[in-house]
């Protein structure tokens, strides 16, 4: 069996604008792209979630309170269990609209992510806006997400159309496909906090997981 988590223990106990200047996760881009392996599985027994490793196999992010279609909230934690971001579905919204907060707070959202439903542009699947408005106006839009999450083939583009993050299928040594539960998250230097990009992954899974 392919080893997905080389250095993880058997058990485990944002910022495109100035408004995003919040405490970051310990894994911070130093000018080079960061490549993470995302495993759609919790390290806790009988619990769904995400487990994320860096290129050396070290545990960097985890989500243990997760299930697809969650009506409550999802907490993204670092390896030690410290809450980095809390993701909440926006109430009284007709569209699939989510807001993201620092830590476990419930005020002053950092950004919002809304599922894109415009059939005229099939490449765009979601957009990220500043604050909690969910507005898709050019003034508020920070990122556009394009591609197919179900195929694990997505790109995140900023307002200058630079590709700042990617989701790609992962292959084991020898070219053996690992399936859609294990994939790569590539974060380019334009996103200086990888936790923000991981929040995008969680939200895409909420919106598009079968």
TrEMBL record:
<dbReference type="Pfam" id="PF04525">
    <property type="entry name" value="LOR"/>
</dbReference>
<protein>
    <recommendedName>
        <fullName>Protein LURP-one-related 8</fullName>
    </recommendedName>
</protein>
<dbReference type="InterPro" id="IPR007612">
    <property type="entry name" value="LOR"/>
</dbReference>
<dbReference type="InterPro" id="IPR038595">
    <property type="entry name" value="LOR_sf"/>
</dbReference>
<comment type="similarity">
    <text>Belongs to the LOR family.</text>
</comment>
<dbReference type="InterPro" id="IPR025659">
    <property type="entry name" value="Tubby-like_C"/>
</dbReference>
């Amino acid at each position: 069996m392919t080893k997905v988590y080389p250095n993880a223990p058997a058990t485990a106990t944002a910022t495109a604008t100035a408004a995003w200047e919040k405490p970051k996760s310990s894994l911070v881009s130093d000018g080079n792209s960061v490549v993470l392996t995302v495993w759609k599985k919790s390290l806790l027994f009988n619990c769904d979630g995400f487990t994320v490793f860096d290129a050396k196999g070290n545990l960097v992010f985890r989500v243990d309170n997760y299930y697809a279609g969650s009506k409550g909230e999802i907490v993204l934690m670092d390896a030690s269990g410290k809450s980095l971001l809390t993701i909440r579905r926006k109430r009284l919204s007709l569209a699939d609209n989510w807001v993201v907060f620092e830590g476990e707070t419930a005020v002053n959202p950092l950004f919002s992510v809304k599922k894109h439903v415009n059939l005229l542009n099939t490449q765009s699947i979601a957009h990220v806006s500043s604050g909690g408005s969910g507005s898709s106006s050019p003034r508020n839009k920070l990122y556009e997400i394009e591609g197919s999450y179900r195929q694990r083939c997505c790109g995140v583009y900023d307002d200058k159309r630079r590709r700042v993050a990617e989701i790609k299928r992962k292959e084991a040594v020898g070219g053996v496909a690992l399936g859609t539960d294990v994939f790569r998250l590539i974060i380019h230097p334009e996103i200086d906090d990888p936790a923000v990009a991981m929040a995008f992954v969680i939200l895409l899974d909420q919106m598009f997981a079968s």
